[in-house]
Design a protein that fits this description.
By secondary structure, the chain is α/β, with parallel strands linked by helices. Helices cover about 35% and strands about 15% of the residues. It is globular and about 55 Å long. It binds zinc ion (ZN). Zinc ion binds next to strand 7.
Length: about 375
Protein backbone atom coordinates (compact mmCIF):
# COMPACT_ATOMS: atom_id res chain seq x y z
CA UNK A 1 0.00 0.00 0.00
CA UNK A 2 1.86 3.03 -1.29
CA UNK A 3 -0.01 5.86 0.28
CA UNK A 4 0.17 9.36 -1.14
CA UNK A 5 0.76 11.47 1.94
CA UNK A 6 -1.23 14.53 1.07
CA UNK A 7 -2.76 16.79 3.61
CA UNK A 8 -6.52 16.65 3.13
CA UNK A 9 -7.04 14.76 6.38
CA UNK A 10 -3.70 15.69 7.92
CA UNK A 11 -0.70 13.60 8.90
CA UNK A 12 -0.25 10.28 7.13
CA UNK A 13 -3.89 9.56 6.34
CA UNK A 14 -3.88 8.10 2.81
CA UNK A 15 -5.90 9.51 -0.06
CA UNK A 16 -5.19 6.75 -2.57
CA UNK A 17 -6.43 3.77 -0.60
CA UNK A 18 -8.85 2.81 2.15
CA UNK A 19 -8.01 4.07 5.61
CA UNK A 20 -7.49 1.57 8.36
CA UNK A 21 -9.21 1.94 11.73
CA UNK A 22 -6.46 4.13 13.20
CA UNK A 23 -6.34 6.36 10.13
CA UNK A 24 -10.09 7.04 10.23
CA UNK A 25 -9.67 8.12 13.84
CA UNK A 26 -6.66 10.30 12.99
CA UNK A 27 -8.59 11.97 10.18
CA UNK A 28 -11.39 12.91 12.61
CA UNK A 29 -8.90 14.23 15.14
CA UNK A 30 -6.99 16.20 12.52
CA UNK A 31 -10.07 17.79 10.92
CA UNK A 32 -11.30 19.00 14.31
CA UNK A 33 -7.88 20.46 15.08
CA UNK A 34 -7.61 22.22 11.75
CA UNK A 35 -11.07 23.82 11.82
CA UNK A 36 -11.68 24.62 15.51
CA UNK A 37 -14.29 27.28 14.72
CA UNK A 38 -16.42 24.92 12.63
CA UNK A 39 -15.72 21.39 13.81
CA UNK A 40 -15.98 19.71 17.19
CA UNK A 41 -14.57 16.26 17.88
CA UNK A 42 -16.94 14.16 19.92
CA UNK A 43 -15.40 11.25 21.80
CA UNK A 44 -18.06 8.60 22.26
CA UNK A 45 -18.26 7.27 25.82
CA UNK A 46 -17.58 3.57 25.29
CA UNK A 47 -14.60 1.82 23.72
CA UNK A 48 -15.19 -1.31 21.64
CA UNK A 49 -14.45 -4.88 22.79
CA UNK A 50 -10.97 -4.59 21.32
CA UNK A 51 -10.42 -1.23 23.01
CA UNK A 52 -10.87 1.03 20.00
CA UNK A 53 -12.22 4.49 20.80
CA UNK A 54 -14.92 5.98 18.56
CA UNK A 55 -15.09 9.57 17.31
CA UNK A 56 -17.76 11.68 15.69
CA UNK A 57 -17.53 15.18 14.27
CA UNK A 58 -20.04 17.99 14.67
CA UNK A 59 -19.73 20.43 11.78
CA UNK A 60 -21.47 23.76 11.52
CA UNK A 61 -21.08 27.49 11.86
CA UNK A 62 -21.57 28.99 15.34
CA UNK A 63 -25.25 29.66 16.03
CA UNK A 64 -25.66 32.82 18.10
CA UNK A 65 -29.43 32.57 17.67
CA UNK A 66 -29.62 29.18 19.41
CA UNK A 67 -29.62 25.46 18.76
CA UNK A 68 -29.70 24.36 15.13
CA UNK A 69 -31.30 21.18 13.81
CA UNK A 70 -28.86 18.34 13.17
CA UNK A 71 -28.40 16.10 10.14
CA UNK A 72 -26.67 12.96 11.45
CA UNK A 73 -24.90 10.42 9.24
CA UNK A 74 -23.12 7.27 10.32
CA UNK A 75 -21.11 4.76 8.31
CA UNK A 76 -19.40 1.38 8.33
CA UNK A 77 -21.62 -0.37 10.89
CA UNK A 78 -20.72 -3.44 8.87
CA UNK A 79 -17.03 -4.32 9.01
CA UNK A 80 -16.78 -5.26 5.34
CA UNK A 81 -18.34 -2.04 3.99
CA UNK A 82 -15.25 0.11 4.13
CA UNK A 83 -15.98 3.03 1.84
CA UNK A 84 -18.70 4.59 3.99
CA UNK A 85 -15.94 5.90 6.27
CA UNK A 86 -14.16 7.63 3.39
CA UNK A 87 -17.46 9.06 2.11
CA UNK A 88 -18.16 10.74 5.45
CA UNK A 89 -14.56 11.91 5.95
CA UNK A 90 -14.63 13.50 2.51
CA UNK A 91 -18.03 15.07 3.20
CA UNK A 92 -16.56 16.61 6.33
CA UNK A 93 -13.44 17.88 4.54
CA UNK A 94 -15.52 19.24 1.65
CA UNK A 95 -17.89 21.19 3.91
CA UNK A 96 -15.15 22.51 6.18
CA UNK A 97 -12.86 23.51 3.31
CA UNK A 98 -15.64 25.14 1.33
CA UNK A 99 -16.92 27.19 4.26
CA UNK A 100 -13.57 28.34 5.56
CA UNK A 101 -12.02 29.12 2.16
CA UNK A 102 -15.25 30.47 0.64
CA UNK A 103 -14.92 28.12 -2.32
CA UNK A 104 -17.73 26.25 -4.00
CA UNK A 105 -17.87 22.46 -4.38
CA UNK A 106 -17.92 20.63 -7.71
CA UNK A 107 -18.94 16.98 -8.10
CA UNK A 108 -18.77 14.60 -11.06
CA UNK A 109 -17.58 14.97 -14.63
CA UNK A 110 -20.60 17.09 -15.51
CA UNK A 111 -19.51 19.72 -12.98
CA UNK A 112 -22.45 19.61 -10.56
CA UNK A 113 -21.88 22.58 -8.24
CA UNK A 114 -22.70 24.08 -4.88
CA UNK A 115 -21.62 27.70 -4.55
CA UNK A 116 -19.74 28.91 -1.50
CA UNK A 117 -22.90 30.84 -0.55
CA UNK A 118 -25.01 27.68 -0.71
CA UNK A 119 -22.57 25.77 1.52
CA UNK A 120 -22.32 28.75 3.86
CA UNK A 121 -26.09 29.05 4.17
CA UNK A 122 -26.35 25.33 4.87
CA UNK A 123 -23.78 25.35 7.68
CA UNK A 124 -25.44 28.44 9.13
CA UNK A 125 -28.84 26.70 9.17
CA UNK A 126 -27.98 23.20 10.39
CA UNK A 127 -25.20 21.15 11.97
CA UNK A 128 -23.92 17.87 10.60
CA UNK A 129 -22.95 15.17 13.08
CA UNK A 130 -20.89 12.53 11.31
CA UNK A 131 -19.75 9.17 12.68
CA UNK A 132 -17.48 7.83 9.93
CA UNK A 133 -16.63 4.50 11.56
CA UNK A 134 -19.34 2.84 13.64
CA UNK A 135 -17.65 -0.60 13.82
CA UNK A 136 -13.88 -0.12 14.27
CA UNK A 137 -13.20 -3.71 15.38
CA UNK A 138 -15.11 -5.17 12.45
CA UNK A 139 -13.22 -3.01 9.96
CA UNK A 140 -9.88 -4.00 11.48
CA UNK A 141 -10.78 -7.70 11.31
CA UNK A 142 -12.03 -7.39 7.73
CA UNK A 143 -8.96 -5.50 6.58
CA UNK A 144 -6.41 -7.66 8.40
CA UNK A 145 -7.95 -11.14 8.46
CA UNK A 146 -11.36 -12.00 6.99
CA UNK A 147 -12.25 -9.83 4.01
CA UNK A 148 -16.02 -10.23 4.29
CA UNK A 149 -16.37 -9.78 8.09
CA UNK A 150 -19.66 -7.97 8.81
CA UNK A 151 -20.26 -8.15 12.58
CA UNK A 152 -18.38 -6.60 15.49
CA UNK A 153 -15.91 -8.71 17.51
CA UNK A 154 -17.87 -9.47 20.69
CA UNK A 155 -16.71 -12.95 21.79
CA UNK A 156 -19.51 -13.48 24.37
CA UNK A 157 -21.47 -15.99 22.28
CA UNK A 158 -18.56 -17.85 20.71
CA UNK A 159 -19.27 -21.56 20.43
CA UNK A 160 -16.08 -23.58 20.85
CA UNK A 161 -13.52 -22.75 18.19
CA UNK A 162 -16.11 -21.65 15.63
CA UNK A 163 -14.87 -18.23 14.49
CA UNK A 164 -18.18 -17.53 12.73
CA UNK A 165 -19.94 -17.44 16.12
CA UNK A 166 -17.98 -14.34 17.18
CA UNK A 167 -19.66 -10.99 16.87
CA UNK A 168 -23.02 -9.25 16.63
CA UNK A 169 -24.56 -7.68 13.52
CA UNK A 170 -24.69 -4.12 14.84
CA UNK A 171 -27.41 -3.23 12.35
CA UNK A 172 -29.70 -5.82 13.98
CA UNK A 173 -29.02 -4.66 17.57
CA UNK A 174 -31.38 -1.65 17.77
CA UNK A 175 -34.64 -1.55 19.74
CA UNK A 176 -37.13 -1.93 16.91
CA UNK A 177 -38.93 -5.30 16.92
CA UNK A 178 -35.82 -6.85 18.45
CA UNK A 179 -38.00 -9.75 19.69
CA UNK A 180 -38.68 -10.75 16.12
CA UNK A 181 -39.71 -14.31 16.89
CA UNK A 182 -42.86 -13.04 18.65
CA UNK A 183 -43.34 -9.86 16.60
CA UNK A 184 -43.22 -11.42 13.16
CA UNK A 185 -45.53 -13.97 11.56
CA UNK A 186 -44.24 -17.54 11.63
CA UNK A 187 -42.40 -18.51 8.49
CA UNK A 188 -41.51 -15.02 7.31
CA UNK A 189 -38.01 -14.64 5.90
CA UNK A 190 -36.88 -11.59 7.83
CA UNK A 191 -33.22 -10.60 7.76
CA UNK A 192 -32.29 -11.07 11.44
CA UNK A 193 -31.14 -14.09 13.43
CA UNK A 194 -30.89 -15.24 17.04
CA UNK A 195 -28.10 -17.69 16.11
CA UNK A 196 -24.55 -16.45 16.75
CA UNK A 197 -23.20 -18.33 13.73
CA UNK A 198 -25.26 -16.17 11.38
CA UNK A 199 -23.91 -12.94 9.91
CA UNK A 200 -27.20 -11.23 10.90
CA UNK A 201 -26.97 -12.30 14.57
CA UNK A 202 -28.83 -9.67 16.63
CA UNK A 203 -27.00 -10.11 19.97
CA UNK A 204 -28.39 -11.01 23.39
CA UNK A 205 -30.58 -7.91 23.75
CA UNK A 206 -31.15 -4.57 22.08
CA UNK A 207 -28.20 -2.25 22.64
CA UNK A 208 -26.09 -5.06 24.09
CA UNK A 209 -23.09 -3.68 22.17
CA UNK A 210 -20.88 -0.66 22.99
CA UNK A 211 -21.03 0.49 19.36
CA UNK A 212 -24.85 0.69 19.25
CA UNK A 213 -24.95 2.22 22.74
CA UNK A 214 -22.59 4.91 21.47
CA UNK A 215 -25.02 5.70 18.66
CA UNK A 216 -27.87 5.83 21.18
CA UNK A 217 -25.75 8.22 23.26
CA UNK A 218 -24.98 10.38 20.23
CA UNK A 219 -28.69 10.82 19.50
CA UNK A 220 -29.33 11.69 23.15
CA UNK A 221 -26.47 14.19 23.04
CA UNK A 222 -28.11 15.82 19.99
CA UNK A 223 -31.86 15.59 20.63
CA UNK A 224 -32.33 18.17 17.89
CA UNK A 225 -31.39 15.51 15.28
CA UNK A 226 -34.11 15.84 12.67
CA UNK A 227 -32.55 13.70 9.91
CA UNK A 228 -30.45 10.54 10.01
CA UNK A 229 -28.70 8.53 7.31
CA UNK A 230 -26.88 5.22 7.79
CA UNK A 231 -24.45 4.43 4.97
CA UNK A 232 -24.04 0.86 3.75
CA UNK A 233 -22.94 -0.87 0.58
CA UNK A 234 -24.02 -4.00 -1.21
CA UNK A 235 -26.92 -2.72 -3.25
CA UNK A 236 -27.67 0.63 -4.86
CA UNK A 237 -30.73 2.29 -3.30
CA UNK A 238 -31.97 4.85 -0.80
CA UNK A 239 -34.24 3.29 1.79
CA UNK A 240 -36.64 4.63 4.42
CA UNK A 241 -38.88 3.05 7.12
CA UNK A 242 -40.46 0.69 7.69
CA UNK A 243 -38.69 -2.62 7.11
CA UNK A 244 -41.05 -5.05 8.88
CA UNK A 245 -44.12 -4.79 6.68
CA UNK A 246 -45.95 -2.68 4.14
CA UNK A 247 -47.18 0.68 5.41
CA UNK A 248 -50.52 2.46 5.97
CA UNK A 249 -51.53 5.92 7.17
CA UNK A 250 -54.93 5.41 8.82
CA UNK A 251 -54.76 2.87 11.71
CA UNK A 252 -52.60 4.57 14.34
CA UNK A 253 -52.70 1.65 16.76
CA UNK A 254 -51.57 -0.87 14.17
CA UNK A 255 -47.91 -0.36 14.84
CA UNK A 256 -44.75 -2.05 16.07
CA UNK A 257 -45.63 -1.45 19.72
CA UNK A 258 -48.98 -3.25 19.62
CA UNK A 259 -48.79 -6.70 21.19
CA UNK A 260 -52.25 -7.37 19.76
CA UNK A 261 -50.54 -7.59 16.38
CA UNK A 262 -47.68 -9.85 17.39
CA UNK A 263 -47.29 -12.76 15.02
CA UNK A 264 -48.93 -10.81 12.18
CA UNK A 265 -46.03 -8.76 10.82
CA UNK A 266 -43.90 -9.44 7.79
CA UNK A 267 -46.45 -10.91 5.38
CA UNK A 268 -47.09 -8.95 2.16
CA UNK A 269 -50.64 -8.44 1.00
CA UNK A 270 -52.42 -9.20 4.29
CA UNK A 271 -54.29 -6.97 6.77
CA UNK A 272 -51.30 -5.93 8.91
CA UNK A 273 -49.47 -2.87 7.68
CA UNK A 274 -47.17 -0.67 9.76
CA UNK A 275 -48.50 2.81 10.56
CA UNK A 276 -46.55 5.85 9.37
CA UNK A 277 -47.81 9.42 9.47
CA UNK A 278 -48.65 10.60 5.98
CA UNK A 279 -46.66 13.81 6.41
CA UNK A 280 -43.55 11.88 7.46
CA UNK A 281 -43.97 9.44 4.61
CA UNK A 282 -44.23 12.25 2.08
CA UNK A 283 -41.24 14.05 3.59
CA UNK A 284 -39.04 10.94 3.57
CA UNK A 285 -40.03 10.09 0.01
CA UNK A 286 -39.33 13.66 -1.09
CA UNK A 287 -35.90 13.81 0.57
CA UNK A 288 -34.92 10.40 -0.79
CA UNK A 289 -35.93 11.60 -4.24
CA UNK A 290 -33.74 14.69 -3.85
CA UNK A 291 -30.79 12.37 -3.13
CA UNK A 292 -31.60 10.15 -6.10
CA UNK A 293 -32.18 13.03 -8.52
CA UNK A 294 -28.92 14.68 -7.45
CA UNK A 295 -26.80 11.55 -7.98
CA UNK A 296 -28.49 11.10 -11.34
CA UNK A 297 -27.43 14.64 -12.27
CA UNK A 298 -23.88 14.16 -10.94
CA UNK A 299 -23.01 10.89 -12.68
CA UNK A 300 -26.13 9.46 -14.35
CA UNK A 301 -26.23 6.79 -11.62
CA UNK A 302 -29.58 5.39 -10.49
CA UNK A 303 -30.54 5.10 -6.82
CA UNK A 304 -34.09 3.70 -6.59
CA UNK A 305 -36.12 4.98 -3.63
CA UNK A 306 -37.42 2.02 -1.63
CA UNK A 307 -39.33 1.35 1.55
CA UNK A 308 -37.30 -0.96 3.80
CA UNK A 309 -39.77 -3.84 3.51
CA UNK A 310 -39.52 -3.69 -0.26
CA UNK A 311 -35.72 -3.61 -0.09
CA UNK A 312 -35.14 -6.37 2.49
CA UNK A 313 -37.60 -7.30 5.25
CA UNK A 314 -35.68 -6.84 8.51
CA UNK A 315 -35.94 -5.95 12.20
CA UNK A 316 -33.77 -4.02 14.67
CA UNK A 317 -31.89 -1.95 12.10
CA UNK A 318 -30.63 1.57 12.82
CA UNK A 319 -32.87 3.67 10.60
CA UNK A 320 -36.12 2.03 11.70
CA UNK A 321 -35.20 2.53 15.37
CA UNK A 322 -34.09 6.14 14.84
CA UNK A 323 -37.42 7.00 13.20
CA UNK A 324 -39.34 4.90 15.79
CA UNK A 325 -37.90 6.82 18.76
CA UNK A 326 -40.59 9.49 18.79
CA UNK A 327 -43.31 6.83 18.89
CA UNK A 328 -41.52 4.73 21.53
CA UNK A 329 -41.08 7.82 23.75
CA UNK A 330 -44.43 9.31 22.69
CA UNK A 331 -42.60 12.58 22.19
CA UNK A 332 -43.05 14.33 18.82
CA UNK A 333 -40.00 16.49 19.62
CA UNK A 334 -37.82 13.41 19.11
CA UNK A 335 -38.96 12.88 15.54
CA UNK A 336 -36.09 12.09 13.18
CA UNK A 337 -36.68 11.26 9.54
CA UNK A 338 -34.37 8.33 8.81
CA UNK A 339 -32.75 6.67 5.82
CA UNK A 340 -30.34 3.94 4.88
CA UNK A 341 -28.23 4.64 1.83
CA UNK A 342 -26.81 1.61 0.06
CA UNK A 343 -24.11 2.54 -2.42
CA UNK A 344 -22.59 0.14 -4.99
CA UNK A 345 -23.96 -3.28 -5.96
CA UNK A 346 -21.91 -5.81 -3.99
CA UNK A 347 -19.61 -5.37 -1.00
CA UNK A 348 -16.36 -6.00 -2.89
CA UNK A 349 -15.38 -2.52 -4.00
CA UNK A 350 -11.92 -1.73 -5.36
CA UNK A 351 -10.45 1.55 -4.22
CA UNK A 352 -10.31 2.88 -7.79
CA UNK A 353 -14.13 2.76 -7.81
CA UNK A 354 -14.44 4.88 -4.67
CA UNK A 355 -13.67 8.43 -5.88
CA UNK A 356 -16.79 8.45 -8.07
CA UNK A 357 -18.92 6.92 -5.31
CA UNK A 358 -17.61 9.44 -2.80
CA UNK A 359 -18.56 12.32 -5.11
CA UNK A 360 -22.00 10.85 -5.82
CA UNK A 361 -22.94 10.27 -2.19
CA UNK A 362 -21.44 13.53 -0.88
CA UNK A 363 -23.32 15.54 -3.51
CA UNK A 364 -26.53 13.65 -2.73
CA UNK A 365 -26.23 14.12 1.03
CA UNK A 366 -25.59 17.85 0.67
CA UNK A 367 -28.65 18.17 -1.56
CA UNK A 368 -30.77 16.24 0.95
CA UNK A 369 -29.56 18.43 3.80
CA UNK A 370 -30.26 21.62 1.85
CA UNK A 371 -33.78 20.49 1.04
CA UNK A 372 -34.29 19.27 4.63
CA UNK A 373 -33.13 22.55 6.13
CA UNK A 374 -36.00 24.33 4.38
CA UNK A 375 -38.64 22.32 6.25
CA UNK A 376 -37.63 20.64 9.52
CA UNK A 377 -40.18 18.03 10.68
ZN1 LIG B 1 -24.32 -2.86 5.67
Amino acid sequence: MAAVLQDRFGGSVPLDDYCNTDEVRMACVNLALRYPALAERIDLPEATYEGNPMQALRIGAPAPQGIKPVFMAIGALHGNEWGSSEILLNLAADLLGSYSERKGLTYGNAGFQYSDTEVGDLLNEIDFVLLPLANPDGRRHAQDHVYNWRKNRNPADRIGADEDTVGVDLNRNFAFLFEFTTAMAPGTSTSISDQPVQSTYRGQRAFSEPETRNIQWLLARFPQTRWFADLHCGSQAIIHPWSDDEIQHTHVTMDFRAQAHDGQRGLPGDAYREYVELGDWNAMQALAKVFADTVKAVSDTDYPVKQGFEFTPSCASSHDWVYARHRIAQDPALKTLAFAIEWHAGTEVFWHEMPKIIEDVCAGLIAMARAAALSPP
